[in-house]
Amino acid sequence: MFAYLVNLATLVCINAILAITLNFIMGYAGIFSLAHAVFFGVGAYVAAFIALQWTDSLLLQLLAAMIVAGLISAALALPALRVRGDYFVAASLGFQVLAATVFSEWKSVTGGIGGLVGVPPASIGGHAFGDPVEFLGLAAVTLALVVVLTTAIVRSSLGRSLKAIRDSESAALAFGKNVALIKTLSVFYSASICAVAGVLYADYLGFINVESFTIDASTLFMAMVIVGGIGTVWGPIVGAVLLTLLPAALTYLPFLPRTEIGSVQQMIYGFAMVLLMIFKPDGLMGVKRGEA
Hints:
- With 292 residues, the chain is mainly alpha-helical.
- The chain has 13 helices and four strands.
- The chain has one domain (2-212).
- It has helices spanning 2-27, 36-53, 58-72, 74-82, 85-105, 107-110, 132-154, 157-167, 169-174, 179-205, 215-228, 235-250, 261-279; strands spanning 116-117, 123-124, 127-128, 207-208.
- A two-stranded antiparallel ribbon has the order 1-4. A two-stranded antiparallel ribbon has the order 2-3.
- It comes from Bradyrhizobium centrolobii.
- One of its GO terms (cellular component) is plasma membrane.
């Protein structure tokens, strides 16, 4: 039971990082993306490829994953500069589908449908994080750093500019804001830190394949943000905790067949979203929106 709880806590930390980075562009820049799993996958594949081919150094994996994801984020930043609202959601959906196809077909790098197996534990200074409890500590520290860094950016002049663009892009332009640059930087930051979660995911599980980086994953990350409270500091973390623990809780229902858990989970997600939109449209932590 202890090992199971450690596993859940580690996955909560990873999902919380993903939710925080998606909330950064959704809640503060007003960019609604269905392609967040792409950068999660890029980080995971870069880390796994480096670990299997060259070195298990966590710092090198993180650096490479953040650079690659940041560069690829230009493919998302470009439509973000040209279209808004529903049009961008459609563009990000196309980007997600394209990336999932690449993950499936680029077998020499991603392993195709079969994925990459046997990824060694990451190490820092020669110390490998093979123990699950140690890795949980690493994931928790990483999450704390992401929270601190993201909060600092949100409360900086860049963060205020992001909120101005979110509220009225035309007004931001009139006040002399460089909207194109600010949007690009926000997407770059979101993608780069999202890739950090991918690195942790690959190093923790030791196996990855495209199933973890599909449109379903992107939808789940968006649900975490919306359920917790978009544009809030703690909302994405609350959403990540709830939607990560929910599937685990369902497995303990004696009357629910294991084969039906996925379907019931999707129904609960949808029902919860409908209830939130009716009774608490700002999310569970929406009352604290002014603090974000």
